[in-house]
Amino acid sequence: MEKSMKIGIIGGGAVGLLTASYLYQNKHDVTLFTRTEDQANQINSLGVILLVDDKKKQMCITANKLLPKISTFDLLVVCVKQYHLNQIVNTLDQYEGENILFLQNGMSHIEIVKNLSIPNCLIGIVEHGALKTSLNEVTHTGKGMIRFGQLKGNIDALKRLSSLHTAEFPFKCQDDWEYILKQKCLINCVINPLTSIFNVRNGEIITNEYFKPICKLLFNEVATVLELNRQNEWDKLVEICEKTSENYSSMNRDLFHGRQTEIESMLGFVKKLAIDKKINVPTIELVYNSIKGLEKKKG
What homologous superfamily is domain 180-298 in, according to CATH? Predict the structure, then answer.
C-alpha cells in the first residue's frame, strides 16, 4: 500500500459506507459526502459502524452533506446509484480534482463520465456484498473485490488507484473496462429483477426447477445483446448465485422498502441497446415491464 491519500466518497449507501470504512481502516484520510444533513450528522456523532463476521468496528469518519462545490482530493469516488447521478452532475462539473472513480451498476453512466472535464476518469464494479442497516451502519455480507479500468487519463492515475489494494479490501486493475462492466451488467440484469419478481434469495433462481428456465431465457437474451460468450458467462452467473445463495439482491430490497430500483440502468439500458441493434427481446420486455409495474404498485 502506498502512502496515505486524501479520499472523498460521494454516496452514503451500502457501497459508500463499506468503501469509506475499509479505506479509513487502511489509514487514508476519508471524507464521506451524503445526500442528507441527517445522515452526515449521525455519522459525525456516532461514526460509521462496520459489521464483519459478527464483529463490529467503529470508524470516526468525517461526513458532510454534498454541496454543488466541494474541495479537491487525491481521489474522488462516486458511489451513488445510477438514477442519482444526474442530481450530482453540477458538483462533478465544478470539481477541480484530477482523479475520479465511478462505482455504479449498469452501463448508462458511461456517457456522463466521458463528458466530464476531469482528466483521469476511472470506472469500476463492486463485487462485495454489502447491506446498509441504518444511516451509519453497514454489514459486509460477502467478500469480493473492486475491479476497475481507465476510461480516460494517464497511467499514473491507474497506478495510484492500484496502490489502494489490500488483502482485506482488494482492488484489481483490468485492461478492458468495458468487458467488466458488460459482465456485471449481465449478472445484475438476471439476478436483480428475477429475485425481485419471485421475491426469493439469489440462489433460488438456479435451484428452483421452474425459475431456472426463465433465468436461462433472460440470460440468453441479455448475453446476446451485450455480445458476451454465453457458456463462460453462464458459469460465472451460477457461481455468483451459489456464493450469494442466502443473500437478497439490492433490487429485491429496494422494492421491499418501497424505493426506486435501478432497473433503467440495467435492463432499461439493454432494452434500448436491443432496439438499436434490431434484436427481438421478448423476455427482457416482460421482465422489465414486471419490475416497472411492481415499482408503480409499491410507489
Answer: N-(1-d-carboxylethyl)-l-norvaline Dehydrogenase; domain 2 (1.10.1040.10)
